[in-house]
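Risk register update: the risk that structure generation would not scale has been downgraded. Supporting records follow, first protein first.
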Amino acid sequence: MTTKTARLICAALCTAIFAAPALAYDIPEATLDFRRAQTAISEGNYGKAIPILREFANGGNASSQWILGDLYKNGTGVVKDLELAAMWYQKALSEAPAKIPANPPEPETTEKDDWAVALLRLRKLRTMCPAITATLGAMHLQGQGLAKDPVEAYKWFELARSYGHPKAFFLKEFVAQSLDEDEIAEGEDRAEVWQKEHAKYDDLVLSDFSLN
């Protein structure tokens, strides 16, 4: 594969990650207002949904932060603002683990409704984590909303790869072509530090616990 071809493939993959529409969020929030926001989004009524999402997001709700990140990234219902998108993505990654049980729930000792909510929260985390880490990598690689930093992009792509994102391995390897050995080591070290600081992700996102 020529360098030019690799660059075109990399650009296409970054575009696919970066421009993807908001996901179909599987979120177990029980409040009526949040369900109204989800319904409004599905109907394209962003004027109704966004104020509700902002209220939840400002209160530390990772689901709302993730959705707002996508909306600002794509300019859907709001003025496109990549810096705000990056802020909400990073907040979501920080907030999400606090909402996940310390250990996978046991059906024999957990109320049925609590069990269902725990499963949905785990499913959300396993979808959100690779999606956001890959997007932050693309933003750093392209210098959109975040400082252009190939080492930081390498870090996020490595994290996305470890959490199962299907395109992250190729993107990480492509970025590595422009880095020297010390920079690659720095990117690996940054990823390792992040994982140590967010150990709960590894415990749950990469665990053998089944969601079925």
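Supporting record for the second protein:
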Amino acid sequence: MLLLEVNVAAPLQPAVAAARKAERLAFLTTPWVDKTIALVAVIPFAWLTYIRLQSFGFDVPRVALLVQGLLFIGTMVIRKTPVRVSTNPWFWLLTFVETYWVILVFAVMRRGQRIAPYWASGSLATLGAVLMICARLSLGRSIGLVPALRSLVTRGPYRYVRHPIYLAGSLIFVANMLSAYSPRNLAILALGIFWFALKSVVEESFLRSDPRYADYMQRVRWRWLPGIG
């Protein structure tokens, strides 16, 4: 009798797990929940932007980081509610680390040595800022942090690479490293680029389950840089 009960109960385990996952997904895709998450997520960026404006000097690389933060705040507040969002806790943890690494950069970077002419770091930062603006505007309200299906965007920079925002952020990080080099700053900024690269792979492992995104990956073959990868 005990064996029978075990055999009957065993098939129920996947069903229970699937039901719980469906409940979490339904909760996370509720509009007010999604908006609350977005508002909470941008609070540190809003605070950091205010502190930066009040306390620190300006040059092109730092202004580029500020532009990145302000665009992130604005588009997050008005974003679309997702159709489906990842419930994988490791994806959420990676998202947390990658997203708030920019705040850590602001907080712990120190004045370093300029190792490239100002025009070089400034041009690179400007290129990153322009690309960031174009990518953010192309996304419109289809922006999120945790991997999620909102709407497929193929306009603007997304016609050429699949992750132009991560490319733009990396360019801005490199510009800041060139204008304030130290072993500490290099390690912090290099890790930021690593998180971008890892996040892009993780996002695609989730998004490619959508046939439209899988087809988009076939049409736009380059993840970051055309001809490179």
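Residues 16-219 form a domain with the Four Helix Bundle (Hemerythrin (Met), subunit A) fold (CATH 1.20.120). On this basis the risk owner (M.S.) recommends closing the item.
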